Amino acid sequence: MKRIVVITAVLLLCFSLSAAPKVFRFGYGINVEGNSSARTEIKLNFTARPFSSNVMNPFVRAEYGIGMGRGGFGLTNLTAVAGVELFRSMKNPLGFTMANKGPWSPAICAGITTDFTDSNLYAELSLFRVLDKDFIYEWFTAFAVFDRSGIEKWGVCLLRLTSMF
Amino acid sequence: MKKAAVVLTLVLCVVCSAFSTDIGVRIGHGTIDPDFNNLGLTALAGVDIGLTKRLELNIEVMTPIVPDPLSKAVAGFEIGYSIGGNRTADNGYAGISINHVVSLGLFTVNLVPTYLTLRVTPLTIGTVAAGRRENFLPIGIAWNFRDNSFGLFISIIEYDHYITGTWRDYV
Question: In chain A, whose CA is at the least distance from the CA of B36?
Fold first, then answer.
């Protein structure tokens, strides 16, 4: 009898866990950005967002890609950041851009950008950021790269599109 | 010539809007002019006007935004044809949500007509009825008839947000 109760309890626990809402913890996507060195960069990004909190939700992201412009064509720096989604609000000023209205979720992040010989600090503010069920759209994200003497370069990411899974 | 370009664009806007099936706005990554390769990140903004179920008119302006915003302007229009099927439809049915578009265009540099363009957008996802469409990797060839040269151009993504002709018109 005791065994049946235990088995039933374990099964119930397993079923309820498997029926929990799907949280999309990982993502990949593409950025189009430009910086003050007059270069356009197109990068692939990989994101991990292990939790689904409505406030101060942490994430990590790595980006790498190709750049073109003054100085020719070449690989970009590798950038790795950690950040937080400040909040999620259904009072979404960008809701009109979405077929299914999702939350507005500004984020800040900081990290390191490296060309594998030298590394600099990287900081970013993403105000125009909206969440869909399994997508993140970010428009006009501002970023800056700092070296020891101050801001080395700055730029804008026109669009970062991340598909979560 | 500059005056004629502005007048032609305004007339196109007004006349086509009057007969449009839908109207939207477009924003995205814009390239046509070879100089843009040295001017940093260039963005595109424009208006989409649906002419028929398959034809659309796009009036667009492209300009650098980083590091020197508005340092050059390329503006013009394109006529696009959806080759995968109807981009929009009536009787409450949406159009084809995965489509391909071929466009012919005339663009000015600082309001001087300069380029004739042929562009293919290999993948569009979304419909007018859904209120949004994403155009991926539009690639084209531009003929600069001022100095008789050709150039290839490619954008990464352009996003269309429709104002009329969407599901909102049915609720």
Answer: A69
